[in-house]
Amino acid sequence: MLFGESHQCLGFIFQVAKTKIMANIFSRIGTLLNRVVDIVSQGSLERVRILREFNLVFKEAFQSQNIDRHCTVTTSPGNPSFRHELSTMYIRSGFKITIQNDNNLIESDYIEISKYVIESAAFVRQLMALGYDTLIIKGKNQYKSLEIPLKEIANLHKYMLNS
Amino acid sequence: MKKNIIRIGSIVLVLPFIFQVAVKIKNKRALRKRVLADGNSDYESTAKDIANGINGNTRKLYKELITKIHPDRFLDHKKIIANELSQQITKSKHNHSQLVELKNQVDKFLNEN
């Protein structure tokens, strides 16, 4: 009887581990495909570079216990109503910051985090040049997310007039 | 003959479309190039600034500086400098690297007193 229970328990652990490994493999394949699409659609590695550098810095900061929240940056579908002159197709126009350990995260925290991103208009313009039109801040386990239209933070008129 | 006319007609109709799209793509690329050339491509420092902000380091540093440099703590011409510095600190409230630069200025100013 006891052996049977422990066997069942082991089976369950095995199943969970298997599901996690599968999810990990799918996410890696997704990331790879995203990168290929970025390189093909943009003609440069800039979008790949920005995501890689952000993820590296966030990971290092979390591992060295400089920050208590682990954030990851990905490309995700943006908001079609936030389109601007350099927007890429809407399914790839969102610059999404996901907070992995989102316990005790309230709405004001999202706003606070977004302020540090949109503080620099030059950086926002760079994001816009790379085809992003929406900044998304989201907790991993929460349905709510904050969406900010980048065109309201900075604009490209100056560069268009120069052409 | 009729087929050839249809072919030529359709090409003539489609060509301006293709040309328009090509021009649009070219303009978009040029605009993108101009914007990227104007900006700072050091994404690492931007990411560090954001990480510091998320952690609350930026907020702590801002509070420390704004308390140190409060204009009411100084007199005469020093008050004017303190006022300018506090305005700059408030402006850079969410930018960690700029606040670090301002911290040096504040320390220098306080050491002069």
List the helices and strands and how they pair.
The complex is a heterodimer of chains A (163) and B (113).
Chain A: H1 2-42, H2 46-63, E1 71-76, E2 94-99, H3 107-118, H4 121-129, E3 134-139, E4 145-149, H5 157-162
Parallel strand pairs in A: 2-3
Antiparallel strand pairs in A: 1-2, 3-4
Chain B: H1 2-38, H2 43-55, H3 57-68, H4 76-91, H5 96-112
Helix pairs in contact in B: 3-5
Q: What does this protein look like?
A:
Helices cover 53% and strands 14% of the residues of chain A. Chain A has 163 residues and is α+β, with helices and mostly antiparallel strands. A 4-stranded mixed sheet of chain A has the order 1-2-3-4. In chain A, a hairpin with a 5-residue loop joins strand 3 and strand 4. Chain B is mostly helical and 113 residues long. Chain B has 2 domains: 1-37; 53-113, no CATH class. Chain B contains 5 helices and no strands. The relative contact order of chain B is 0.09. The mean pLDDT of chain B is 86. Chains A and B meet through helix 2, helix 3, helix 4 and helix 5 of A and helix 1 and helix 2 of B.
The H/E string of chain A reads HHEEHHEEH
Helical content band of chain A: 40-55%
Given as residue ranges, the uncertain stretches of chain A (5+ residues, pLDDT < 50) are none
- Shape annotation of chain A: globular
- Rounded Rg of chain B: 28 Å
How many individual helices of chain A?
5
Offer a few descriptive terms:
A: 163 residues; alpha+beta; 4 strands; globular
Quickly describe the structure.
Chain A is α+β, with helices and mostly antiparallel strands and 163 residues long. Chain A is 53% helix and 14% strand.
